[in-house]
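We were asked to recover a plausible sequence for a given structure. The inputs and outputs are reproduced exactly as logged, with field labels preserved.

PROBLEM: sequence recovery
POSITIONS: 157
GIVEN STRUCTURE:
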């Protein structure tokens, strides 16, 4: 089973974004289990001293499960279609990777030292999104990837 983890800077309070994240995570856990993917967990870190990208990177690295595939979300990352993203997840699973960690940085992005350690970097588009919406969009795409791999009709071409 390949676990999927989202490591993000900042704490998400209860509200509509959290409800969407919980919904997509629950859906993914149900669909992904049969595919050898999941569960989806969220690790939140917070730099209380507001030191910027460097201290945030240290906290993020501590939150990432050892031996994880590290995939950063970055506006400079690779843009891909949902089926391409699904194949990327399946590829990591098929390589026998036990954990995939998606990393979402703070307001200033992800420190270059952590970006350099990443196995992959993806972009949700050329626009910059608030971290709470990036989390929702990533959770939806992770769920969508599982439905593509399972061959369900959720994703339409």
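RECOVERED SEQUENCE:
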């Amino acid at each position: 089973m390949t676990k999927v983890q989202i490591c993000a800077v900042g704490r998400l309070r209860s509200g509509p974004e959290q409800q969407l994240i919980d919904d997509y995570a629950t859906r993914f856990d149900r669909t992904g289990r049969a595919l050898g993917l999941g569960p989806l967990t969220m690790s939140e870190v917070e730099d209380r001293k507001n030191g910027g990208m460097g201290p945030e990177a240290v906290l993020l690295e501590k939150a990432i499960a050892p031996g994880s595939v590290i995939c950063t979300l970055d506006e400079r990352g690779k843009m891909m279609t949902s089926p391409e993203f699904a194949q990327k997840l399946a590829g990591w699973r098929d390589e026998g990777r036990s954990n995939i960690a998606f990393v979402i940085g703070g307001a200033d992005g992800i420190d270059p030292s952590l970006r350099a350690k990443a196995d992959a970097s993806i972009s949700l588009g050329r626009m910059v999104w608030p971290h709470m919406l990036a989390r929702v969009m990533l959770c939806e795409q992770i769920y969508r990837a599982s439905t593509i791999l399972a061959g369900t009709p959720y994703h339409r071409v």
